[in-house]
Write a structure and sequence with these properties.
Blueprint lengths: L7 H5 L21 E11 L2 H12 L4 H15 L9 E8 L4 E7 L17 H5 L10 H12 L4 H14 L1 E2 L2 H14 L3 H7 L11 E2 L2 H13 L8 H11 L18 H6 L3 E3 L2 E5 L2 E5 L6 H13 L6 H18 L8 H4 L2 H8 L41 E7 L4 E7 L49 E5 L2 E7 L5 H14 L5 H6 L3 E2 L6 E3 L1 H13 L4 E3 L7 E7 L2 E6 L8 E6 L2
Parallel strand pairs: 14-15
Antiparallel strand pairs: 1-9, 1-17, 1-18, 2-3, 2-10, 3-6, 4-5, 7-8, 8-11, 9-10, 11-12, 12-16, 13-14, 16-17
Helix pairs in contact: 2-3, 2-6, 3-6, 6-9, 12-13, 12-15, 12-16
The structure holds 6-diazenyl-5-OXO-L-norleucine.
6-diazenyl-5-OXO-L-norleucine binds next to loops.
InterPro entries: GGT_bact, GGT_lsub, GGT_ssub_C, Ntn_hydrolases_N
Organism: Nonomuraea bangladeshensis
Pfam families: G_glu_transpept (PF01019)
Length: 577
């Protein structure tokens, strides 16, 4: 996305007390992927979202205020990746209390959903359906985050997004391409075609795209509060859209209606959850607990690696393979996920001992995280590979002048969610419930169920040393999120890269699948070595779109976005000196 017509900073003056004068760097008019400085820092995929967050920080807001403001702007400028009718996970380091909090804003299944609700439905049909729309968690996440940890009101935090939605942004190639790739299904819904195919085609590159209906939706949310969605009129409209999708007359698409009721919206809560925590090379790595598999899988892989005498790319792929086998077998939104055991050193040692010179043949079987560990137990469970994943969703990082840190993943799942805009509201519905296992799959922890949250791979991560934050990171990319976060951590702490290099380095992802996907640069560097050790490699042109920040000492922060993946990201600091 390119610059908005009106700088978000101008908008905020109306409601946030002025901060002391600072040596603010001139605002870049284009995305810059790396910035280093003081007083706060932000990285997102989008210049407008980063500017909005920086503006909040400059006006005296904290990291949570800035993260919510940026998230809401991303709902405008990255509407196919995120929005108020989606979900996400937020990890927050609270500097005053020296404590890591996490918010689970994952969508829920309606009460009427059962383990067989998706059985027999082709995946692609599930993607574009009312059935796949989960009860949205993003608005509840913003509300909870602001009430517990922020200083801005809900209304204030939405203000920059309202401005961007009404003034518009310049359509870039990525937005055009994403719209074009979705055109076949967008045209099948009257509301979506009207918004995103204005003259029967995607808005041209260079044109200004305005979304006044979304501006009004945010305004109403600000005026009426989250209850407008969770049981109020907006909620009723979401339910009506899910149950009777506005299919274009003459369309032959089989659009399955959803099961959502207003009572499902009334029942929704974003939840404060205990983070996952593992210690790795003297660092404490905090992440998201179930229903995300992000924290447990990154954590288990790090523990496995720590149990090995040497860490290289072969070991990275093998640890990830084993951790994914356990994720697939044990992690979901169910009671009794053996989280403590999955993250125990004993279990990690048992798993690590399976790693040898040659690659294990995937899919490998899960281990037995039962608390009783031998020196080298052979797994006995049933192996399952990880499903295919798309590249969308978004992640942002924020640090403020007080040392608070946010890592926040938000999503509507597929590029363009379920493809259905709520008529008159300017927002696409999510299709997060396609993250459930469709089944039949007896014993699978991730089958759908009433009120259940689909297992996620989102892995917003904060790393502490001696109780103070040193790093924060995360990425989009479905289950490749986990390997991207893991690989960046290894690049930074084992492979001798600085943070900028750690993000830019070519990626590979092994998720207990027959082939390891890898970017071209990774293939060029490691193909021969890894094939000699039994790995099968296949090209994946682009894996992830990470954002990260690192404290460099004496309040200096470096914030890093992608140099080129997904068109590059936008990093800014409050003060360069
Ligand atoms: O929660 C998850 O892991 C996914 N629904 C996130 C979506 C994403 O990154 C793009 N992939 N399909």
């Amino acid at each position: 996305m390119r610059p908005v017509l009106l700088p978000a900073a101008a908008v905020l003056i109306a409601f946030v007390p002025a901060a002391p004068a600072v040596a603010a760097p001139a605002e870049p008019q284009q995305k810059v992927p790396v910035a280093t400085g003081y007083g706060g820092a932000v990285a997102t995929v989008d210049l407008d979202a980063t500017k909005a967050a920086i503006s909040v920080l400059r006006r005296g807001g904290n990291a949570v205020d800035a993260a919510v403001a940026a998230g809401a702007v991303l709902g405008v400028t990255e509407p196919y990746s995120a929005g108020p009718t989606g979900g996400g996970f937020l990890v927050y380091y609270d500097a005053a209390r020296r404590k890591v909090h996490t918010i689970d804003g994952r969508e829920t299944a309606p009460k009427a959903m059962t383990a067989s609700s998706f059985e027999g439905i082709p995946f692609e049909e599930g993607v574009t359906s009312g059935l796949s729309a989960g009860v949205p968690g993003t608005v509840a996440t913003w509300d909870l985050a602001l009430r517990r940890f922020g200083t801005l009101s809900f209304r204030q935090a939405l203000q920059p997004a309202i401005e961007v939605a009404s003034k518009g942004f310049v359509v870039d190639q990525t937005f055009y391409d994403q719209t074009a790739a979705n055109a076949a299904r967008f045209k099948d819904f009257t509301s979506t075609a009207k918004l995103y195919l204005p003259n029967g085609a995607p808005p041209p590159v260079g044109s200004v795209f305005r979304n006044p209906e979304l501006a009004e939706t945010y305004r109403e949310l600000g005026r009426r509060g989250p209850g407008w969605l969770y049981g109020g009129r907006f909620g009723a409209e979401i339910v009506a859209t899910v149950k009777r999708p506005p299919v274009t007359p003459g369309s032959t698409r089989n659009v399955r209606p959803g099961l959502m009721e207003l009572s499902d919206l009334t029942a929704y809560r974003a939840l404060l959850r205990e983070p996952t925590k593992v210690s790795y090379e003297g660092l404490d790595v905090y992440g998201m607990a179930p229903p995300s598999s992000g924290g447990s899988t990154v954590g288990e892989a790090l523990n496995i690696l720590q149990a090995l005498p040497h860490v290289g790319v072969h070991e990275y792929l093998e640890a990830s393979k084993l951790a994914f086998a356990d994720r697939n077998a044990y992690v979901g939104d169910i009671p009794g996920v053996p989280l403590k055991e999955l993250l125990s050193d004993g279990f990690a040692k048992e798993r690590a001992c399976l790693i040898g010179d040659q690659a294990l043949t995937p899919p490998v079987a899960p281990g037995n995280p039962d608390g009783s560990y031998g020196p080298c137990a052979q797994p006995t469970g049933i192996a399952s590979p990880t499903a295919k994943e798309g590249p969308e969703t978004t992640h942002l990082v924020v640090a403020d002048r007080w040392g608070n840190v946010v890592a926040y993943n938000l999503t509507i799942e597929s590029t363009g969610g379920n493809g259905i805009v709520v008529p008159g509201r300017g927002v696409l519905l999510n299709n997060e419930l396609t993250d459930f296992t469709f089944g039949p799959a007896p014993g699978d922890p991730n089958l759908p169920g009433p009120g259940k949250r689909p297992r996620s791979s989102m892995a917003p991560t904060v790393v502490l040393k001696g109780g103070k934050p040193v790093l924060a990171l995360g990425s989009p990319g479905g289950s490749t999120i986990i390997t991207t976060v893991l690989q960046i951590l290894l690049n930074r702490y084992d492979f001798d890269m600085n943070l900028e290099q750690a993000l830019a380095a070519p990626r590979a992802t092994q998720r207990n699948t027959a082939q390891t996907q890898a970017e071209q640069g990774f293939l060029d560097a490691y193909r021969a070595e890894l094939e000699a050790r039994g790995h099968q490699l296949v090209l994946n042109p682009e894996i992830g779109a990470a954002t990260a920040l690192e404290f460099l000492g004496r309040d200096k922060v470096q914030v890093v976005a992608e140099p080129s993946r997904r068109g590059g990201g936008s990093a800014m600091v409050v003060r360069s000196r």
